[in-house]
Structure formats: structure tokens, C-alpha cells
Task: structure prediction
Amino acid sequence: MTETICQLCNQNHQVYSVESIYFAIIDQDEAVLNEVGITKSKKRLNEFSPPPPPKKTFWARFSPDSLMLLVVVVFLLIPLLLNQNLNLNQTIGLILVFLMYLLFRNKLLSWYQGQQKLNQEHQIFYQQDIKKWQRNLYCPVKDEVFTATKD
Ligand SMILES: [Zn+2]
Result:
């Protein structure tokens, strides 16, 4: 590593990549931490941490069809477990639930696909955030993290 003109304070000094500091804190690499002049602490770790991965929305995990299948299986399983036959009311109930599902299936499917798409977009933003984080530098003079401009 060599001294460069720091893009943050315009002074000639060593700048460090935030990614390498982060892994030095994780790995408890005292040599690197001493050189940078950073004491490891929870606050410091948060400061240098990569962006957290996006949370998947709950309903995007299961397709409507597999949820419906689950409902049907449970419906059929309960009388079996109770050692009873499915009576007429239960049979009609099951058929009605199924018909209702068919009626709304297209709407549910398009909503589900929308959720999937949203997750994919979040994933793309996350990748961009990670790339930006990997470009982040640390200026020990100002004790600040900054994003390097592409050169
Ligand atoms: Zn600086």
C-alpha cells in the first residue's frame, strides 16, 4: 500500500479499503487494525459492515398452488387422523374452497409473481450496494468512510 492523495481530505496519506478493515475486525487481525489505528468494537464493526441482504417477503416464498395443495392435503388428512370418513358437508366444503381458489387463481398468481419480481429488484439493488461498499475507503485523518469516485 502506498500513500495517495485522499479524495476526502486532499492530503497525501494512506487510505484503506473499508472491506479490508471489516475483515480485519472480523478476523481480529491486530496487525492491520494497529496500522489503520482502529480499535475493534461493535460500533466500529457496524461502521464498516457491508449492507445487510434484503429480506424476502414472506408470501413470495410459497406459490399459491403449493399453498392450495397444502390446504387440500390437510383437509383430507384430518378425518384420516381422526379415523373418520370425509362426510358430505366436508366434501362439499372442500370442493367449494377449491372452486373459490380456481376463481381467484389468476389474481393470486399475478400478485405472487409481482412479489417475486419485487424480491429480484431488491436483490439487484443489494448487489449494487455491495459493489458500492467494496469501493468505500477509510480516511484515518478525518476518521471517516467515503465512497471512492471511479477513476
Ligand atoms: Zn484523508
About this structure: Residues 88-135 form the longest helix (48 residues).
